[in-house]
Write a structure and sequence with these properties.
The complex is a heterodimer of chains A (408) and B (148). In chain A, 38% of the residues lie in helices and 14% in strands. In chain A, the strands form three sheets. Chain A has a seven-stranded mixed β-sheet, with helices on both faces. In chain A, strands 9-10-13-12 form a four-stranded antiparallel β-sheet. In chain A, α2 runs parallel beside α7. The longest helix of chain A is centred in the middle third of the chain and has 39 residues. Chain B is α+β, with helices and mostly antiparallel strands and 148 residues long. Chain B contains five helices and three strands, in the order αβββαααα. In chain B, strands 1-2-3 form a three-stranded antiparallel β-sheet. In chain B, α1 packs across α2 and α2 crosses α5. The two termini of chain B are 31 Å apart. The chains are: A alpha/beta (408), B alpha+beta (148).
Chain lengths: 408, 148
């Protein structure tokens, strides 16, 4: 068996750019370098044409009825900021209440916290143990002051897919806007903004085999017409919603990535799902005390496998499999020394949060890689468990919760 | 996070992984840390009661690479030392030897705690023993290990 090392299995963090995307981008660095806002010459027109074509490609993928509903940004963090702050500021005379969930991305949570300091109130819904919030929870949280519900399509850490369709029915019925951070879900699961009643959606190119540094915000133009206040002042680009010279090569790449996804995502998702299941089955068959974090299928992203190997600390595990790129919810991998807030919000034991590893499979992974990684992980979990006092106590039948630990 | 070569070396080839009989009166066991914090170290020493020399040291650690390396290093260092010498071990020596970054200093603190705790456990057992055998000289207030 020959696999090329290192192996990349962190596709929820970012993805490599599809070579066809790179090819589409290249002319826009050199001969087609014009500023899309230059209305007076052919260089500008070529740039503008390319941007408008990309807008159509993106609109089509998410089922937007008009390409005018796509606003280009620097990435999903900016899209989330623009959506939430933009709606909050525009509709402040209508209300000041926002609903979101504890497991949202920091780009959403920290934006909400920022608004809280400025007179807004935010409800952070508690997800269930598998990471889901229900439409009923949203319904109960809505007040006459609620202007926006912001919930992700799928979670980046545990891969849980929210029931956005049911939630969208509630927000539409109540006349509240729905923003969806669709970064992880787009081109992995069904996303049609009309079917789901989504009013604003954040997406990012680099999670779907496009370039980094470019994203988009979908802003519904009819039924209802969504209005937002711009957060960046300047030349009034993007119909006044986001000033700043457009990143034409990346936008072209983003469009191309969406066009490819349009025809290929279902087949890719099926293949990625098969790879993830191959990995999951191998690990669960060979090892005891392995826990799946997040929801079972079909409410789980096809490429996400977030597991806790009890009695083995996550960073030590990542060090053991250093030729495989994965991520961990262990405190030791974060600057804050706090274990993953997502796992804690799900009520995962802190010990298990420290032991979690997220495998993010993508379209370029192979069966050979999965087999190699499975063997490597199994070998090292066994090795580290031999070194773990907790595993020894577990085998002796000692309940680890009965021990008075000397927390430090 | 980049690891120093020494951390990697100890992590990949840990010294003295294992378990000593914790019921043995000459064995001191230190169990420090907490699973919820992501670090648990168990360090055990077998001490010659005549000479107070650490003849054997074993560890098992649940924790990151730096925690495993710190405990591995400490088992190497205390072997052949008297328990009084072992008690002078400072976490800063571990930091220096393994080139630990600031965010990993707690691993070295834990390793220092583990050795102190193991020595304290050994001493407690010895006291109980001398209390049992030598009725003439009970030492209920024997000097405690010099906890910093």
């Amino acid at each position: 068996m020959s696999v090329k090392l290192p192996i990349y299995m962190d596709n929820a963090a970012t993805t490599p750019v599809d070579p066809r995307v790179v090819e589409a981008m290249l002319p826009y660095f050199t001969e087609k370098f014009g500023n899309a806002a230059s209305r007076s010459h052919v260089f500008g027109w070529v740039g503008e044409e390319a941007v408008e074509y990309a807008r159509e490609q993106i609109a089509k993928l998410i089922g937007a009825s008009s390409d005018k509903e796509i606003v280009f940004t620097s990435g999903a963090t900016e899209s989330d900021n623009l959506a939430i702050k933009g709606v909050a500021h525009f509709y402040q005379s209508k209300g000041n209440h926002i609903i979101t969930c504890k497991t949202e991305h920091k780009a959403v949570l920290d934006t909400c916290k920022h608004l809280e300091k400025n007179g807004y109130t935010v409800t952070y819904l508690q997800p269930d143990v598998q990471g889901r919030v229900s439409a009923d929870q949203v319904r109960e949280a809505i007040t006459d002051k609620t202007i926006l519900v912001s919930l992700m399509l799928a979670n980046n850490e545990v891969g849980t897919i929210h029931p956005i369709k049911e939630i969208g029915k509630v927000t539409r019925e109540k006349g509240v806007l729905l923003h969806c951070d669709a970064v992880q879900g787009v081109a992995k699961v069904e996303l049609n903004v009309d079917d789901l009643n989504i009013d604003l959606a954040s997406i990012s190119a680099h999670k779907m085999y496009g370039p980094k540094g470019v994203g988009a915000l979908y802003v519904r133009r009819s039924k209802p017409r969504v209005r937002i206040v711009a957060e960046i002042d300047g030349g009034g680009h993007e119909r006044g919603m986001r000033s700043g010279t457009l990143n034409v090569p990346s936008i072209v790449g983003f469009g191309k990535a969406c066009e490819l996804a349009q025809t290929e995502w279902r087949a890719d998702a099926a293949r990625v799902f098969a790879l993830r299941e191959r990995l999951r089955k191998k690990l669960f068959a060979a090892l005891d005390s392995v826990h799946l974090n997040g929801a079972p299928d079909p409410e789980r992203l096809p490429g996400n496998l977030n597991v806790s190997f009890s009695f083995v600390e996550g960073e030590a595990m990542m060090m053991a499999i250093k030729d495989v790129a994965v991520s961990s919810g262990s405190a030791c991998t974060s600057a804050s020394l706090e274990p993953s807030y997502v796992l804690r919000a799900l009520g995962v034991d802190e010990e298990l949060a420290h032991s979690s590893i997220r495998f993010g499979l993508g379209k370029y992974n192979t069966e050979e890689e999965v087999d190699y990684v499975a063997d490597l992980v199994i070998r090292h979990v066994e090795r580290l468990r031999e070194m773990s006092p907790l595993y020894e106590m577990h085998r002796e039948g000692i309940d680890l919760k009965s021990i008075q630990w000397t927390a430090h | 996070m980049a690891y120093s070569d020494k951390v990697i070396e100890h992590y990949e080839q840990p010294r003295n992984v294992g378990t000593l009989d914790k019921e043995d009166p000459n064995v001191g066991t230190g169990l420090v840390g907490a699973p919820a914090c992501g670090d648990v170290m168990r360090l055990q020493i077998r001490v010659n009661p005549e000479t107070n020399v650490v003849e054997e040291a074993k560890f098992k650690t649940f924790g990151c690479g730096s925690a495993i390396a710190s405990s591995s290093l400490v088992t190497e260092w205390v072997k052949g030392k008297t328990i009084d010498e072992a008690l002078t071990l400072k976490n800063s020596q571990i930091v220096e030897e393994l080139n630990l970054p600031p965010v990993k200093i707690h691993c070295s603190v834990l390793a220092e705690d583990a050795i102190k705790s193991a020595i304290a456990d050994f001493r407690k057992k010895q006291q109980v023993r001398s209390g049992e055998s030598a009725v003439s000289s009970p030492q209920p207030n024997a000097p405690a290990p010099s906890a910093e």
